[in-house]
Automatic annotation (TrEMBL):
Full protein name: L-gulonate 3-dehydrogenase
UniProt feature coiled coil, ranges: none
Species this protein is from: Rhodovibrio salinarum
Source lineage: Bacteria, Pseudomonadati, Pseudomonadota, Alphaproteobacteria, Rhodospirillales
Subunit composition and interactions: Homodimer.
Site features described as Important for catalytic activity, chain residue numbers: 144
GO MF annotation, one: L-gulonate 3-dehydrogenase activity
Keywords: Cytoplasm, NAD, Oxidoreductase, Phosphoprotein
GO biological process: fatty acid metabolic process
Length: 320
C-alpha cells in the first residue's frame, strides 16, 4: 500500500505468540499499520524483538526491502479496547481452546467497530462454535494461516453458516492486498482443506511404515524427490491434468481404477499406534539428534526463505 496517511486502514492482531507476531509481519510488510495486543506483557515485548530479528533475516533473502519500515508499522498495545477500537480487520491468534476463543470473540464483538471483520487463526475449531450466537456473527469467520505465514502464503477462509458472504469477499480482498494466497472453504469442515490433505498423506505414510514397506527416510524421500517437487508449484488436480495426453479425464480413465482399489485398501482407519510412533521417533533421532531440532528448524526456515525468494523472482508465473 503506497502513501500512508492517518486514515490508513489499521489491522489489529490479538495474541502475539508464534502466529500473531508472524501475522504482524505479513500485514506490516504490505504497508498496513498493525496494532499488536497480548494479554501477557512479556509476550508482547518478546514479539517486538522477534519481529525485528525476523524482518532482518527476510531482508537478507531480499524478501523485504526495508526491515525498519516494517517494524515501525507495528505498534504494541496492552489494552484490548484501544487495540481494536479503530481496526478494519482483527486477526485473533490466542491459544487453541474453545473457551478462550469464545470469551475473546464476545469481547471483540463489543469493542471493535461494527463493520470490522473478526477473523480467527484457529487450526481446527469451526467458527460457528465460538461466534454463532454473537450479535455480530455475520462479520466473524476463520482465516487459518500456515506457519510461518510470512513465508507460506496460503490462508484458508472458512465462514460459519451465520457469516455474511460480503465478509468473506472483503477478507479475501484484504488478504490478497497483504500478499497472501487465500482460498475459501465453502462450508465448515474439521481440519479445513490443508490439514485434511496433510492428514490423508500422514495416515498413509504411517500405514506404509507400520506394515514394513519402507523406512521412514525412504517415505520422506518419496515426497522430497518425487511428489513434493511438483507440489511446490501445482496441486493434485493440475498434476493429473498434465500427466495424460488428453488431460484430467484421460488420466481418470487410465488410472482411476487403480486409485479406487488403493482407496479401498486405505479406507480402514487406523489409530496412530504408540509402538509405531516410537519406532518412527527412533529412526528420526538416528538422523537428527533431539538437541539439533532447533537448528534444523532454523535451516528449514532458511530453505523456505530461499524458496520464497525464488518464487518471487518468477513473479510473472506467481498467479499460476
Ligand atoms: N503454531 C502453528 O503452527 C499454527 C498454525 C496455524 C494456526 N495456528 C493457530 O493460531 C492460534 C495461535 O497459536 P500460536 O501457535 O501462536 O500460540 P502461542 O501459544 O504461541 O500464542 C498465543 C498467545 O496468545 C496470548 N493470549 C492468551 N490468551 C489471550 C487472550 N485472552 N487475549 C490476548 N492474548 C492472549 C498468549 O499470551 C500467547 O502470547 C491458535 O488458534 C493456533 O491453532 C497455529
Amino acid at each position: 500500500m503506497a502513501g500512508e496517511t492517518e486514515a490508513e486502514p489499521r489491522i489489529a492482531v490479538v495474541g502475539a505468540g508464534l502466529i500473531g507476531r508472524s501475522w504482524a509481519i505479513v500485514f506490516a510488510r504490505a504497508g498496513f499499520k498493525v496494532t499488536l495486543f497480548d494479554a501477557d506483557a512479556q509476550a508482547l515485548k518478546a514479539a517486538k524483538d522477534w519481529i525485528a530479528e525476523t524482518t532482518r533475516a527476510l531482508a537478507r533473502y531480499t524478501l523485504i526491502p526495508d526491515p525498519d519500515a516494517v517494524c515501525e508499522r507495528v505498534t504494541l498495545q496492552d489494552d484490548l479496547a484501544a487495540a481494536v477500537g479503530d481496526a478494519v480487520y482483527v486477526q485473533e491468534c490466542v491459544p487453541e481452546e474453545l473457551s478462550i476463543k469464545r470469551t475473546l470473540f464476545a469481547a471483540l464483538d463489543r469493542l471493535a467497530p461494527a463493520d470490522a471483520i473478526l477473523a480467527s487463526s484457529t487450526s481446527g475449531i469451526v467458527a460457528s462454535t465460538f461466534t454463532g450466537d454473537l450479535a455480530g456473527a455475520a462479520r466473524c469467520l476463520v482465516a487459518h494461516p500456515v506457519n510461518p505465514p510470512y513465508l507460506v502464503p496460503l490462508v484458508e477462509i472458512c465462514p460459519a453458516p451465520t457469516t455474511d458472504p460480503e465478509a468473506v469477499a472483503r477478507t479475501r480482498t484484504l488478504l490478497e492486498q497483504a500478499g497472501q494466497a487465500p482460498v475459501v472453504v465453502r462450508r465448515e469442515v474439521r481440519g479445513f482443506l490443508l490439514n485434511r490433505l496433510q492428514g490423508a498423506v500422514l495416515n498413509e505414510a504411517l500405514r506404509l511404515f507400520e506394515d514394513g514397506y519402507a523406512s521412514a527416510e525412504d517415505i520422506d524421500r518419496t515426497m522430497k524427490y518425487g511428489l513434493g517437487l511438483r507440489w511446490s508449484f501445482m496441486g493434485p488436480f493440475e498434476t493429473i491434468d498434465l500427466n495424460a495426453p488428453g488431460g484430467l479425464a484421460d488420466y481418470a480413465a487410465r488410472y482411476g481404477p487403480l486409485y479406487e482399489t488403493l482407496g479401498q485398501e486405505q479406507a480402514d482407519p487406523r489409530p496412530w499406534q504408540h509402538s509405531t510412533v516410537q519406532q518412527l521417533e527412533a529412526e528420526r533421532r538416528q538422523h537428527l539428534a533431539g538437541d539439533a531440532l532447533t537448528a534444523r528448524q532454523a535451516w528449514r526456515d532458511r530453505r523456505l526463505m530461499a524458496l520464497a525468494a525464488h518464487k518471487q523472482a518468477q513473479s510473472d508465473d506467481s498467479s499460476n
